[in-house]
Amino acid sequence: MTGLPAARTAGPAADGTKDGDSPLDRAVWRLRSRGCWDDAAALLEPHAAAHPAIALRRAALLVERSMFTCAGWAEAEDALRYAEARAGTDDERGDAACERGHLAYAATVLGVRDRADEARAALGRAAALLPPAAEGRALLDFRRGLVAEHIADSPQSARAAYRRAHAAATAHDDPLLLSFTWRHLAGLALRDGELAEARHGFAESLRIREELGYLIGTAPALAALADAAPEEDAARLRAEAARLFRLMDGVPTWLADQLITAA
User: For residue 20, what pLDDT is reported?
Assistant: First the structure.
């Protein structure tokens, strides 16, 4: 299973400091990176009513939990509706629509319910609301690439969207999103038989996740690199992915089938 993008972490910190620099932001990241989404969301909840962007960040955490665990969909939906109701600017409404499209996409590709039309409509609405230079466009382009690849089966459109997202993530210094764009561009390269390009992209994705301490996303990155690695390296990478998968109590759930032989 592929196609699990990062939830956007941008937005005003609860104590008014720069994005990502506050003790709250650092605590949320530590919990999120270890798959403790409920605890991370609980830290944001007291600030959600006063800050629409924080309400959306909380919703994004719960959507990400659903993607990794294939559970908790109703709670993610409730949190997203709460965030949507508090969005007051075009940027806020656009970011909320992007998250709405993401939730619908995840439910579709994980086989929970076919919400493909909702995903397309919500991402289209986000594109109409977010200006071309908005920071949220990078994540929007990435998610439109996911829909193109995994729902529309249009790898050319997906590649173009991933490349736009990759360039924007570079410009906005968003390394976690870069780890996802590297991974999905590499996946398309592997699909085309471009092994060297695929290995490079998967290796970059893994490197970034290890540097960030994004533990919950490291096993999928190892498994992806194994798919493009020589046989002797692939076995080692899958064994390490399986070890981390067990350490994370079988999350992400969709990775299990890929790691059966390495268990």
Answer: 62
Longest dimension (CA), the chain: 54
Q: How do residues 131-163 score in pLDDT, each as one tens digit? A: 998 999 999 999 999 999 999 999 999 999 999
Q: Residue 70, Cβ neighbours under 10 Å: how many?
A: 18
Q: How many other C-beta atoms can be found within 10 angstroms of the C-beta atom of residue 81?
A: 13
Separation in Å, CA 14 to CA 21, 149, 201, 227:
10, 36, 35, 41
Q: How much of the chain, in percent, has pLDDT values that exceed 70? A: 91
Angle among Cα 9, 127, 40 to the nearest 5 degrees reads 20
Residue pair 172/135 in contact (Cβ under 8 Å)? The answer is yes
Whether the CB-CB separation of 196 and 166 falls below 8 Å is answered with: no
Rounded CA-CA distance 100/91 in Å is 14
Asked if 239 and 219 touch (Cβ cutoff 8 Å), the reply is no
Residue 165 near residue 171, CB atoms below 8 Å: no
On the CB side of 255, CA atoms within 13 Å amount to 29
- Of 15, 28, 86, residue with least CA distance to 53: 86
Phi, psi (rounded to 5 degrees) for 246: -65, -40
What is the dihedral sign for C-alpha 217, 181, 52, 102?
negative
| Contact present, 149 and 3 (Cβ < 8 Å) | yes
Q: What angle do CA 192, 119, 60 make, to 5 degrees?
A: 100
Coil vs helix vs strand at 220: helix
Q: How many alpha carbons fall within 13 Å on the CB side of residue 8?
A: 29
Nearest to 225 by CA among 197, 256, 253, 263: 197
